[in-house]
TrEMBL record:
Protein name (record): CYP450
UniProt cross-references to Gene3D superfamilies, sorted A to Z: Cytochrome P450
Alphabetic keyword roster: Endoplasmic reticulum, Heme, Iron, Membrane, Metal-binding, Microsome, Monooxygenase, Oxidoreductase, Transmembrane, Transmembrane helix
PROSITE patterns: CYTOCHROME_P450
Annotated coiled-coil segments of the chain: none
PANTHER family xrefs: CYP9F3-RELATED, CYTOCHROME P450
Membrane-topology annotation of the record: Peripheral membrane protein
Originating organism: Locusta migratoria
One Gene Ontology CC term in the entry: endoplasmic reticulum membrane
Amino acid sequence: MHSAPLLRHTSKRRVPPRHFAIRSSTMSLTGSILGDVISTLVFVAGLLVLIVKWFYGYWKRRGVPSLEPESVFGNFKDILLHRKNFGEGLQELYLRLDPHPYGGVFISLRPALLIRDPELIKSVLLKDFSHFQHRGFKVDEKHDPLSAHLFNLGGPRWRALRTKLTPTFTSGKMRLMFPLMDACAREMLDALRPLAGRREDVEIKEWNARFTTDVIGSCAFGIQCNSIRNPDSEFRKMGREVFNSPIRALFNFVLVRTGYLLHIKLLSPESDRFFMGVVRETVDYRKKNGVTRNDFINLLLQLQEKGHVDPDHDSPDKGKKVSHSADIDFPFTDDLFAAQCFVFFIAGFETSSTTMSFCIHELAVNPDIQERLREEIDSVVAKHGGKLTYEAIQEMSYLDMVVSETLRKYPPVGNLGRVCTEPYTIPGTNLRIEKGTKVFVPVYGIHHDPKYYPDPENFDPERFTEEGKASRHHFVYLPFGEGPRICIGMRFGLVQAKLGIASLVSKFVFSASSQTPAKLKMDPNSAVTSSIGGIHVRIATRT
């Protein structure tokens, strides 16, 4: 009797559809995976934060004054993103670390030490140089032969090459090269005369770059570049290319290990082929035709063929056999030959042309200094038969002061970098610098420190009287570096720049124009200290 209703009731019970059950299961599973992924990401992010904090605690754990990193770029964000010139970027760090003699900074996650005290700078660059021989730049002779030049090399190979190349930059060698430089200076004057006659505004940096390109082309490669008359010459074009690749520079000077792994060359393939080809063609031509010329190529040929450079004619070593110890006797290959020519070119034309240009700018906005310099040039030239000779340039003491002040205010290389090659304890402290640590000397910052140079933005050649120089610590003026790694081409660079400036000032008058700013802005994309937008002045013929 009761079974039927019960059966009816049971038959009406709702059973969830099969697809609904599956969907619920899927949602539950999806939610579980998503939660796991998010949890994992949060964990990894937290772990990364802890790791980064641990890295950034490097200097604090050692009790070293340090600057708090701003981001994953460490303290070098503005420099690495090309918002500030390297020299000005380090100047900011230099000022923030005042009054400490040194301080810790970070290039991304890598710790580096910025040193401020002149005595400590002296220890790093000179007294304890054996601990800081390397610059830390990429050298890859197999994949990038042009990287194996004197500026980049370190250790025994650098010392050997430095010993061999030093005799190529004596005063006697500079005297022999001077006529080649003078010919380029006269060519520049001839090209500028029409512009001066019309009192035109000129971008003097480009003109000076053409002049120094022709000088280096002539003195280093034995080639007439004709950049003064033809601004689109191959050498001038390649000169612009060398300093126009921030990405390549990053992997060759900062992310060096990555640069090695990826075989990133300093130059573009086109520039690399150009420089290697020019050197090989020149050397082959000279060897086949017995051509001798008073230039850098000729000196390197002596080094390659004899193992040494012939002494100067007036040298006490003339006629003596030159010998070298076994540790510095190594094959001077064609690739090594080309690399030294290349660095002579890049180090010689850009640094000298910017120095000349900054100097002309300061003379244009300081006409009293310009006139005093012109009077000295006229007086000394008159004593030398009306010619700008090598000896005349050396006699111009005020010119030397003007150039020194230019290099003080606008040092071509705004910082000096070294890598600790052996563990080093800072004198008078317990701080031990580990092997591989990068050390920076902020040259631009030191040169603009009012403690050493009162009113540093003021252009004042009187800072470099003999008395003025004697009153300062020797290691607060570092436009060419110091110690065993001081710029080997310093003498050449000074002669070239002084000749160019003296030639221009003796024939023309420079003044500020509507395009001449009172204060120049430094180019954050340039590897050397250089101004944004060039340097514009008005040029006129002397009356």
